[in-house]
Design brief:
By secondary structure, the chain is an alpha/beta fold. 39% of the residues lie in helices and 29% in strands.
Length: 381
């Protein structure tokens, strides 16, 4: 009775799932609730970091954000970069016991990892289950000979993930110092896959058997960028690259400010020159990004992935100008990649909670793909 009354009168605290991403310059947080299979955005927040890479500063900033957002005590998931982890897939007999699976995956890790097991954290999960007998692969089940179909063995595809302790331990310390309830540490690639599938029609296309090319998710950040490639909704590969940190608008304005103050050029001439310089910068960024994407595409396993790049989504702090991704950058990127380019928005198909500003959510959306994907995790038991 107490539970029924508390639900009716709203005295029970709503359970949220919170995703947090750290970049070199920001702490990004997304809070979601879920009801009847539908995610709802309960809040988003982006806070600037003062000290680069300082654990205490990050923890203090995170603690302040969590408290101000009213999500203290809620389940929080954090991310590490996929480049900081080792992953390996293995096919196992689905009839194995949990202990037998543990032993098999530990053996896989011992033989594959380039460092000692006592230096890493290990985890694994089932990613696919399927009958792997000859009949199911080569012959339609209804036409399979009885002796083949009855001997088909059920297998499951397992994914092993390993992360060195010196990478994961600082993440745990940040959570402890921030006073948050850490539910999980996830790979950014897994989070991005969830966010991409949520915000696009890819699940429908996959379900209806439509032929899909490769989808790229490009995140331009301050000082570094990355591209994640997906095929049929599954994350296949990522590539990172570094570049010079620069606030290009501020740089251009500072350059032309000197000329304007010296009256070498009029305000109109300066404004025109800044616009032209910005477009040139967009073209340079697009060409560099396209080269990196093409390199990533060339590294995809040809026996698993067919088709060319069909669509790209663009996000990250480095893609924003005055809180939006300008059409000029999207157009230049589309010309360089030879495909349609859209602004990344993980909230496109989500409802908004009471008091959530839709304008602010749309502005911040290109920065929150990872944090949103983390918040979409099912709570661990």
């Amino acid at each position: 009775m107490r539970r029924i009354l508390s639900e009716l009168f709203g005295t029970r605290r709503r359970q949220y799932q919170v995703g947090v991403e750290f970049t070199d310059t920001q702490v990004r947080l997304v809070s979601l609730s879920k009801r009847d299979g539908q995610h709802r955005v309960e809040g988003v927040c982006i806070a600037e970091l003062g000290s680069l890479g300082d654990i205490q500063d990050i923890a203090q900033c995170l603690g302040h954000v969590v408290k101000s957002m009213g999500v203290k005590g809620q389940r929080v998931s954090l991310a590490i970069k996929s480049s900081s982890a080792f992953t390996k897939s293995a096919m196992l007999d689905a009839t194995l016991s949990r202990r037998e699976i543990d032993d098999r995956m530990l053996a896989e890790a011992d033989s594959a990892l380039p460092y000692a097991l006592d230096e890493v954290y290990l985890d694994y999960a089932v990613v696919e289950s399927n009958p792997s007998g000859v009949a199911s692969h080569l012959i339609a089940p209804s036409l399979a000979p009885q002796e083949l179909s009855t001997h088909a063995i059920a297998h499951q595809k397992m994914l092993l993930v390993a992360c060195k302790a010196d990478v994961l331990d600082p993440i745990v310390r940040i959570a402890e110092q921030a006073g948050i309830r850490l539910d999980a540490v996830d790979l950014d690639s897994f989070a991005l896959e969830r966010a991409l599938m949520q915000s696009t029609r890819l699940p429908l296309q996959v379900a209806t058997g439509q032929s899909l090319g490769v989808v790229a998710l490009i995140l331009l950040e301050s000082g570094h960028s990355c591209v994640h490639l997906f095929h049929n909704g599954r994350h296949k590969l990522h590539r990172e690259w570094g570049h010079e940190k620069i606030d290009f608008d501020s740089y251009l304005k500072e350059q032309f400010k000197v000329k304007f103050e010296a009256r070498e050029e009029t305000r109109v001439e300066v404004t025109t020159a800044i616009g032209s310089g910005r477009l040139g910068h967009y073209r340079d960024v697009a060409n560099e990004t396209a080269n990196q994407v093409r390199t990533a595409l060339s590294q995809l396993p040809s026996d698993e992935v067919e088709g060319e790049l069909s669509l790209a989504y663009l996000g990250g702090e480095g893609a924003l100008v005055s809180c939006v991704i300008e059409a000029g950058l999207i157009n230049e990127m589309a010309d360089s990649l030879l495909c349609e380019v859209k602004s990344a928005n993980p909230f496109r198909r989500m409802a908004l909670g009471e008091g959530v500003d839709p304008i602010a959510v749309n502005q911040d959306a290109p920065l929150l793909m990872v944090a949103c994907g983390l918040a979409m995790r099912e709570a661990s038991t």
